[in-house]
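Go through this chain.

——
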Amino acid sequence: MNVMVKTTRTTRMRTTGGPCSCRNRSNGLGVSVSHRPMHRSVVHRTSQQQVHGQGHGLVLARAGAAAGGPSPLDARDEESRTKQQGRQAGKAKAVQLEDELQFASSASTSPLSTSQPLDMQKNVLGVILGGGAGTRLYPLTKKRAKPAVPLGANYRLIDIPVSNCINSGINKMYCLTQFNSASLNRHMSQAYNSIVGGGPAGRGGFVEVLAAQQSPTNPEWFQGTADAVRQYLWLFQAAERDGIENYLILSGDHLYRMDYSDFVTKHVESGADITVSALPCDEKRASAFGLMKIDDTGRIFEFAEKPQGDALKAMMVDTTVLGLDDARAKEMPFIASMGIYVFKTSAMIDLLTKHFPEANDFGSEVIPGANAIGMNIQAFLFDGYWEDIGTIEAFYKSNLALCESGDKLKFSFYDHEFPIYTMSRFLPPSKMVDCEVKDSVIGDGCVIRHGSRVSNSVIGLRSLIGSNCVIEDALIMGSDYYETMEECELLPGCMPIGLGNGTVVRKCIIDKNARIGHNCQIINKDNVQEAMKEEEGYIIKDGIVVIIKDSIIPDGTII
């Protein structure tokens, strides 16, 4: 099991989870048993009738035997009694069959109730959209798919939606991607299938990567989120034979913790064709999102993409309809789409194949189009921490926010009831030798040598930090492997993976397997906001220096 060490001031940590409380979480194994009392009552009535008939014959037989003479029942009476018993038994069986048929009919048409919890493992298929080339996160996506980007010292982005699914009882998931999927495929095959597949609780679960492919009917690569799902719709439809009734569409670059069982149950109970997860927000944040308007039943009837000015004010809604209290509803009168949807399977098929066969995107084309043709689209309120980490700046800030404590901590991996799963790597504990570490997160298998100072930073797996280094406000992703001296000597100058002695790094991201020499300074000395220096092993985005994966930074370099 992976262990992540977080060093901080002596402050008790508190995890936050928004409205998706762990107390009422479904484990996905609920099975309705409401038919059994009815079934038992029918059997009981049948057995009473049969025993009564047999008992009557037994009493007469005993009476005849006690009199010492022949039985008072002659052959004709005996035959009549036998026929009557047969008719009674036949009627009882008919009553039993009729009751069972009535139950089956009512069960197939009646809405979901609290006595019939939704079976998430049987009814829901998770579809995680891995995104395109990941240009907003470049160069972190130069050699890997976006969902495979490391996160929080021990994890990867894909661990968030997959863990939310597992914790919500969903054990069937696909991840769609078309760029650099090798490391993602390796991670997913090793991390989750032992959890979701096989065994009496697994029920045939799986977590698989579906890469874009060309075929005679689809000669193009994925053109967008909706097109990606359309190209694999033939595979998803095959899951319907196993009872899948709803598609849960997720994004692979969000940081949040959510119980999807509440989301899907609300979707089923409302009878919606589509349900959109909605985030309440104030006016300051609202203009950065796609906004929605709802009626007093929570039904969405209008969409606006990043409105400004009067158009923004026109999108204000009464968020108490979705469950916010009056005070918070006044603070947050807008609802933004989180890019998380539940589709009824029949609605998804009709929309992608009949109504909008050329549409490429869910958020801007398919869902507004579904509203235009009169489909029932509902909003589901998520009032917890959620962050889109699809840009370098957002990714950097979200990682460093994990170093906070107390009330400042918005998201934490420390939740034993709702854990974040990842691949087991069987690494040794981290070792810190005569160094100072403050308000930081240290991953597994790291070595920090004497005299080094680390503050407000995330240090990833297998990181090797030399002596007398200074690391401040930095995200160091670590290494994919340990290296022997013999392997290091094969490289010019034998520069080992990690940070050399006396190196200073501030406000930067150092990708995996980078080799930073002795006495380097990665501090954005000239406060450059944007620079493309790939040939030198780094780029600068939003004022953040990003050292590219596998780069070599020579001794004494100043950036």
